[in-house]
Amino acid sequence: MHLRVLVAAVVLASTAAAAAQTAPARPKITGISHLAVYTSDAAATDHYYREIIGAARLPDPENPAGVRYAFNATQFVDVLPLPAGEGINRLDHTAYNTDNAEGLRKYLAAKSWKTPAAVSKGKDGSRWFAVLDPEGNKVEFVEPARLPNVVDAPNLVGHHMIHLGILVHSRALEDTFYRDLLGFRPYWYGGMKEDRIDWVSQQMPDSHDWLEYMIAGSPSESGIPKTMSLHDLGVLDHLSIGVNSVEAAYKGLEAGNRLGGVHDKHTQIGRDGKGQFNLYDPDGIRLELMNFHATEKPCCSAFTADDPAE
Fold first, then answer.
1. 7-49 residue pLDDT tens
2. What are phi and psi of 253, to 5 degrees?
3. Are residues 253 and 217 in the same domain?
4. Do the domain assignments include residue 12?
5. CA distances (Å), 195 to each of 202, 215, 300, in order?
């Protein structure tokens, strides 16, 4: 009897070891790819991203109805027509670069996450697939074209998208996907007050770019809070461009008469100790110019990983 138990234990251990060896490894997640947003006024949004921000206008290989505004060869904002019935929502999805889209799709599927049956392919040679995170936010993973085009954008205010922000209700729930499954790691957290956490920054596992949980409402809620305004939602669902000096970037925009539209009245030091300046597209999506490095001590917590760099 003892021999049978021993044999069974050996078989189970061997099976578990074999399963662990055959489970696919997670491909690298190498940084931010893009933010996809909606517009209710395509002409005004085009002026904002091309003339004020200075991004290069390109066709969108994922959606023929969209327009791509590129910051570099692998980072951009996709602008899509506003669907009927969207209410105040202006965010379609966030997206991250990977070195192997099909491998990452198989990895998530092996972890029992709902994935499409195959990756999609763009005319530019890119590959991608989309899933939903635990709160229902659409997330894409993009394998860029092997030879991405060089972006011609001489007036661009900054060339590196260093973080994205999204409305989050439950930090713990979102962590089951971004941290436990994908390997995102802590960078910084803080709030408007010392005893409150409003923002949680999670760096990508193979990059210093980060996702910022913009915590609002109750952890038991879902969707956009009914009392939230278009402007407040645009503050939460946002993108950030890294610069060496926010003050210099602001003065350059001012000198070039590029401060039309909605923007802050002046630069400021954020609670993380980094200089920043906020501009808003015509539908309220915030673009945050941010120093790569803090110039003052951050509130609430210390940085636990290296900063992004240009």
1. 344 434 444 444 445 668 999 999 999 999 999 999 999 999 9
2. -65, -40
3. yes
4. no
5. 20, 14, 8
